[in-house]
Amino acid sequence: MTELDRTTRFLPAPRLSKSKFLAGLQCHKRVYLDVHHPDWAAPPDPSMQAVLEMGTELGVLARSRFSGGLLIDEGYRQREAALAHTVAALADPDVSAIFEGAFEHDGVLVRVDILERTARTEEDGPSWRLIEVKSSSRVKDVHLADLAIQSDVLQGCGITLSAVCLMHINTGYVYEGGGIDVGRLFVIDDVTDAVMRRRVNVSAQVAEMKALLLEHVPPAVEPGPHCQSPYECPFWKHCTKDKPARWIYHLPGSKQLVTGLLEQGITTIDEIPSGIRLSVSQRRVKDNMEWVSTKLGAALQSIQYPVHHVDFETVMLAAPRVPSTRPYQAIPVQWSNHIEDESGTVIHQEFLHEEPTEPRKRWAEALIESLGKHGSICVYSTYEEAMIRQLAEAFPEFRFAFQPILKRLWDLHLIVKDHYYHPGFNGSYSMKSVLPVLAPSLAYDDLRIREGGQAAAEYYRMVFVETDWVERAAIRDALFRYCERDTFAMVELRRVLKEKAGS
Questions:
Q1: Which of these CATH numbers, 3.40.50, 3.90.320, 2.40.128, 3.30.460, describes 16-209?
Q2: Rounded distance, CA 455 to CA 329, Å?
C-alpha cells in the first residue's frame, strides 16, 4: 500500500455543517480546505468580525419576539448534548419555539435559528415554522440556499414544516427611543416555495461534496470571480500565493474582461495585447509607470488657506439606538481636523462623542466651530459631503451654517485620481493604497484600528458594550489616533504631490 493510498484510506468519514455546505456551493476547493485545512484560512478581518457580532446581537433580539421559546445553549463542539437537548425540546408541548436547535441527517449537522411550533394533531404530531435570522435588509440568493439545506435536514429528521421563512431587518423602521420594537425592526418573509425549488438539488450537492472530501488532494479550481461571491473566501491568500505579481486578476475594473482574457490564455497584465480596449485606470496599471499630469500643480494651487483637512467616522447600527434614526443609517460620531495656514503651521482639533446618547447635534456644533468661515475643506471622498447634507436635512437649524461649508469642500481623492499615478497603487486610489506609496511612514500598520469598519465596531463596543473603564479608555485612544492619522495623511499627501508637480 502506497503512502497516497494509506492517506486516502484513513480519511475520516466527511461530516458537513450548513456553513460548510454553503462554502461548497461557492467553491468545491473551499469546502475541502474548510474541512481538511482550516488553519490555512485567513481570520475574519475587523469589518467581517463586526458583521458576525452584529448578527449574534440580532439573533438574541429576534428571539424576544417568540414567547415560551427554549434556547439550546450547548456550544457547537457539544454536538451530542445539543442533539439530545433538541430532541427533548421537540417532545415538550410547552416549548413554543426552539432557538439554536441542533439537527443531524445523512452526515449533515445544522443549527436552526428559530423553529416555531405552529400546530399539533394527534395523528401527525406538531408542525413547525423554520425561521432563519439575517442582518440583511432583503432576501438574497445565498439565504435561500441556507434554508434549503436546513429544511432538507429537518425533514430528514421527520420534522413537519408548515413554512420556511427569512427574518431580516426592516430599514423602514424608525426608532423613537426607549425599547426597540422588535415587531417593527424585523420583517418575516415566507420563502417556502423558493426554498422548496432549491431543495430538489440538495441531496445530489451533499453527495458530491462528501465524495470530494474523501479525496487525498483538493479539487483543482482556479481562483476567479467566484472567490468573492457571495462572500470573500478566507482561502484567497492561500490559493493565490503562487500567482505572479502581475497576475491578470489584479487588473482593476470589470472581472468580465479578466475572464475573457484568461479564456484567451492571457495570465499576466503584461501579456495583454495592445489592441485590447482598456479604461484609463487599467491602462495605467498595464503601463506600470509613474505618471504625473501637467495640470497637477495648478490643481493643487486651487486650494485656499487656511486648509482644513477633515475626516468623519460614523457608526451604522442594525438595531438603532439613536431616536429618529433607521437601521443601518450612518450616524456621525467623530471628526478630525488638521488646519494648515499659509506658513505651513499645522494645528489639530478633534471630536468624539463618547456616551450612548444622541451624538449628532454636539458633533455638528463642534465641527461648525472648528471649520470657521474661511479656507478650503480638504476631504478624501464624497462621504463627508453626504454626511453634512444628511445632518442639514435632519436638523434644519444647521442648514444656514452648512450651506457655505459645502461650497468649500475640496476633494483630494479626485486630484490624485485625475493627475497622478504610481505602480505601487495597483490600480486603486484609496487612501489605504496611496498612503503606503507616497507617505510610507504614515501607513496604518502601527495602529490598533486600521480601517473604518473596525473603527465603527470598536466605537460600538466602547459605547454600548464595554464596562471596563481601562479598555474603554484604550479604545477611545485608538479611535482618536486612527481618525487623526486619516487627516494628517492628507496634509502629507498634499506636500508630496506638490513636490511631484515641481511646485
A1: 3.90.320
A2: 16
